[in-house]
Amino acid sequence: MLKTRIKEYRAKYNLSQEDLAKKVGVRRETIGHLENGRYNPSLKLAMDIAKVFETTVEDLFKY
Amino acid sequence: MNKHTKKNPLSYLGWLGLIGIIGVNLSAHGAWILQLFLIYFFFFIYRNVPADELFWFNVKKAGLSSFILGLIINNIVLITLAIFESIGGNQDATKLIIGMFLISSFIPLLFFIGILMYYNRQEKKYVEKDNA
């Protein structure tokens, strides 16, 4: 599973899981699963999240 | 919801439940088997659940397990029917075939529903855990 910095970036951008979920068009549960490394996102979703945080996929997700 | 979610297509399976209502009305005429279609009404609970990629991931996992279970049950049913035939089946053969067909059709469906419910519960449990 991938390690992510989504939680860190959410705090930086002052976004809740719900806010981020709405921005990228998924459910809040999906963001929770991503943050805790229980689910690997599709490349499209990873890129959309990276776009919200104005960063790269490589920065957001670590193997 | 936008890009990654669509209107939940899984909920459309719920309409098959209407066949179950026909079965209830025709049960006196021997069409009781159709009542089993009432199970499909379960899928309406996903009507308001956005179908994002985690949802489909869970559907795929549940579908794979049910498919494998279906294969196993089908093989058992076929072997049972072959044995029954080889020892000289009698007039109860039709009942046996119908019973076996029901088992091989609806057990995987029930299993699929059960696993999907389990995954949904797990999702909610993790969200509550994250909030705590």
TrEMBL record, chain A:
Keywords of the record: DNA-binding
Q: Which PROSITE patterns match?
A: HTH_CROC1
One MF term in the entry's GO annotations? DNA binding
Gene3D superfamilies referenced in this protein's UniProt entry, alphabetically:
lambda repressor-like DNA-binding domains (1.10.260.40)
Q: What SUPFAM superfamilies does the record point to?
A: lambda repressor-like DNA-binding domains (SSF47413)
> Where does the HTH cro/C1-type domain lie?
6-60
Q: Does the keyword DNA-binding apply?
A: yes
- Show the PANTHER family listed in the entry: TRACRIPTIONAL REGULATORY PROTEIN-RELATED-RELATED (PTHR46558), TRANSCRIPTIONAL REGULATOR (PTHR46558:SF7)
Give the protein name, as stated in the record.
DNA-binding XRE family transcriptional regulator
Q: Which organism is it from?
A: Muricomes intestini
UniProtKB/TrEMBL annotation, chain B:
Which residue ranges traverse the bilayer?
A: 12-43, 63-84, 96-119
Q: Which UniProt keywords apply?
A: Membrane, Transmembrane, Transmembrane helix
Provide the protein name. Uncharacterized protein DUF3796
